[in-house]
Amino acid sequence: MTQTMSGIAASNGIAIAKAFRLENPELNVDKRTISDVDGELERLTSSLEKSIAELEVIQKKTAETISDKEAAIFGAHLLVLSDPELVGPITERITTDKVNAEFALQETTDMFISMFEAMDNEYMKERAADIRDVRKRVLAHLLGVTIQSPSMISDEVIIIAEDLTPSDTVQLNAQFVKGFITDIGGRTSHSAILARTLEIPAVVGAKTAMADIQNGTIVIVDGLDGTIIIAPEDSVIEEYKNKQAAYDEQKAEWAVLKNEATVSADGQAVEIGANIGTPKDIAGVVDNGGEAIGLYRTEFLYMGRDQFPTEDEQVEAYASVLKGMQGKPTVVRTLDIGGDKELSYLDLPKELNPFLGLRAIRLCLEMPDMFRTQLRALLRASVHGNLKIMFPMIATLDEFREAKALLLEEKAKLQTEGVEVSDSIEVGIMVEIPSTAVMADTFAKEVDFFSIGTNDLIQYTMAADRMNESVSYLYQPFNPAILRLVKMVIDASHREGKWTGMCGEMAGDEIAIPILLGLGLDEFSMSASSILKARSQISKLSKAEMAQHTDRILALSNSQEVEDYVTKLSIK
Amino acid sequence: MVEKQFTITDEAGMHARPASALVGAVSKFKSDITIEHNGKKVNLKSILGVMSLGIPSGSVVTIAADGEDENEAVERAAEVMKTEGISNQ
């Protein structure tokens, strides 16, 4: 009987194969009173030594077949096995309480496991799994039980397990293990991350897979949407084979596009950039063939800590992003805090309308010392790449002039101090307030570029709080009012020989892309995972043809008509 | 006794990789070595102890050593913090 269940999609792709249950042997620990303390300590030492020897092999193998970074976790496991705060209390329990080594180990590790599980940080919570992994290894040696190892599998299978320990996961051989399903875990658990690195389709958090799936049953794992189908009918297998082929084909097409420029069907080049929050995101941008950073949100540097980041810390972060992009355009947005984004160490008065209050550039101009520190850090980092500085939430030309004056003052100061600063830094603004879009022609004479922030531009134009569910119907990216503002901004920039980018959700939207291309948008900035899809879409669109449609699209009367119009165009 | 303060600059805070490097490096010294964060002090030769502090980015920690090789121990800890990129002091 076919049965369907669903879990958390943890790693993309589709796999169809026989189920292989990775059973967890029962490692029952009884409390026993012992008389031979030395003998018990000897058993403990020998089990620890055997575990260390095994882990050293796994660590070496991981470094060779995966990466040093993945191998590092076993370095931590090895340190746990010789941790004085672990081995000490275990020895103590055996010696004074006269209990068996298994029980002493269980009690002591339980204490650490509950300590990590109680932490309010996902990363630290996951560390409890590492302690369980280490404990299981030592307990198995103490009890003389052999643990099934995934490295013994020599047949194409889908692994079903309650959970995969980090050491299980690195032993998965992608040649035989086509996918895996676990009952517990989330997208950030160690096994999920490794599945994505190894490109093995995986669904985690399936809850009842171990209860419902027997060894040898054919299983479909759809890592794209988290679906699991047990004992599927032939027609369903056929359907999924097609889906798998379509996915592989698309992946191959996108892989080719990775190192290509973004060019429309009629040969017009545009730029696709990525929105990032931290220097760590650069790897994803490079992997997905990003041509630029269209938006680096610097506020993450200020969040999750208990004091302002120092100038040096900021230089380090900005420089690592610029170096990582190797000379490609990198737009850094200055601090956008206030509104719904708060800092624990910055005591801002409660406001009735935070989205209309003291936030972003308004706050920075109100707190010039904090702002100057960021500007100095940006200027100092500028020699490492192609830096463009962007001010958020600009409503008037005066605000832009004031912010730019501070930037130039800091630049002059640094130069007098003998610090090297790039001379080709473009300075632009976010366009997210309707007044600025309307006045774009005036702004275009003074700014070097515009970047349209659609999420805020829509909420301010429609006067609809985007956090308020009851007015969410007014969040209409395709409302002609928004599109007309976008056109005004793009046209104004081009008249002055400047450029316009877009860094909101809309820039990566399938319906929006043809319109924006037709309107002449120069740079599309989106989440890294959307880049290749957008590049593929643009390569099939003619910019000249889309431009002919824009007048008609902008003359439509509402959002739905625009969506219908574009959908019809793409079907044709 | 020798002690030194550090500000943790890695965005992920004191995570497993740098913590392992630090514990591995100082375990070779004879001195008693501790790390303190938020008023809680643990043995720096214990990976479980260090991780249990859950040290976030931006926090200030104090490393202290007491014993015959205390100077070298703190110096070595500072070096590891720097090469692992978790603190630049």
From TrEMBL, chain A:
Q: Name one Pfam family in it.
A: PEP-utilizers_C
This enzyme catalyses: L-histidyl-[protein] + phosphoenolpyruvate = N(pros)-phospho-L-histidyl-[protein] + pyruvate
The PEP-utilising enzyme C-terminal domain extends over 251-541
Give start and end of each PEP-utilising enzyme mobile domain.
154-226
Which cofactors?
Mg(2+)
PROSITE patterns assigned to the protein according to its UniProt record, in alphabetical order? PEP_ENZYMES_2, PEP_ENZYMES_PHOS_SITE
Q: Does the keyword Cell inner membrane apply?
A: no
Q: Which part of the chain is the Phosphotransferase system enzyme I N-terminal domain?
A: 6-127
Which InterPro entries does UniProt cross-reference here?
PEP-util_enz_mobile_dom, PEP-utilizing_PTS_enzyme, PEP_util_AS, PEP_util_C, PEP_util_CS, Phosphohistidine_dom_sf, PTS_EI, PTS_EI-like
Gene Ontology MF annotations: phosphoenolpyruvate-protein phosphotransferase activity
The protein's UniProt keywords, in alphabetical order, are: Cytoplasm, Kinase, Magnesium, Metal-binding, Phosphotransferase system, Sugar transport, Transferase, Transport
Record carries keyword Transcription regulation: no
Q: Where in the cell is it found?
A: Cytoplasm
Which EC numbers characterise this protein's activity in its record? 2.7.3.9
The family classification in the record reads: Belongs to the PEP-utilizing enzyme family.
Q: What NCBIfam families does the database record attribute to this sequence?
A: PTS_I_fam
Q: What does this protein do?
A: General (non sugar-specific) component of the phosphoenolpyruvate-dependent sugar phosphotransferase system (sugar PTS). This major carbohydrate active-transport system catalyzes the phosphorylation of incoming sugar substrates concomitantly with their translocation across the cell membrane. Enzyme I transfers the phosphoryl group from phosphoenolpyruvate (PEP) to the phosphoryl carrier protein (HPr).
Q: What is this protein called?
A: Phosphoenolpyruvate-protein phosphotransferase
Q: What organism does the record attribute this protein to?
A: Planomicrobium stackebrandtii
Q: List the top taxonomic levels of the source.
A: Bacteria, Bacillati, Bacillota, Bacilli, Bacillales
From TrEMBL, chain B:
Which cell locations does it reside in?
Cytoplasm
- Tell me which domain of life the UniProt entry assigns to the organism this sequence originates from: Bacteria
Q: Which SUPFAM superfamilies match?
A: HPr-like
HPr domain span: 1-89
Entry annotated with the keyword Cytoplasm: yes
Keyword list (alphabetical) reads: Cytoplasm, Phosphotransferase system, Sugar transport, Transport
Question: Which residues are listed as membrane-spanning?
Answer: none
Chief location bin: cytoplasm
Keyword Transport among UniProt keywords: yes
- Tell me which PANTHER family the record gives: PHOSPHOCARRIER PROTEIN HPR, PHOSPHOCARRIER PROTEIN NPR
NCBIfam families (UniProt xref): PRK13780.1 (NF010352), PTS_HPr_family (TIGR01003)
Q: What does this protein do?
A: General (non sugar-specific) component of the phosphoenolpyruvate-dependent sugar phosphotransferase system (sugar PTS). This major carbohydrate active-transport system catalyzes the phosphorylation of incoming sugar substrates concomitantly with their translocation across the cell membrane. The phosphoryl group from phosphoenolpyruvate (PEP) is transferred to the phosphoryl carrier protein HPr by enzyme I. Phospho-HPr then transfers it to the PTS EIIA domain.
Name of the protein in its database record? Phosphocarrier protein HPr
- Source organism per entry reads Planomicrobium stackebrandtii
Q: Provide the organism lineage as a comma list.
A: Bacteria, Bacillati, Bacillota, Bacilli, Bacillales
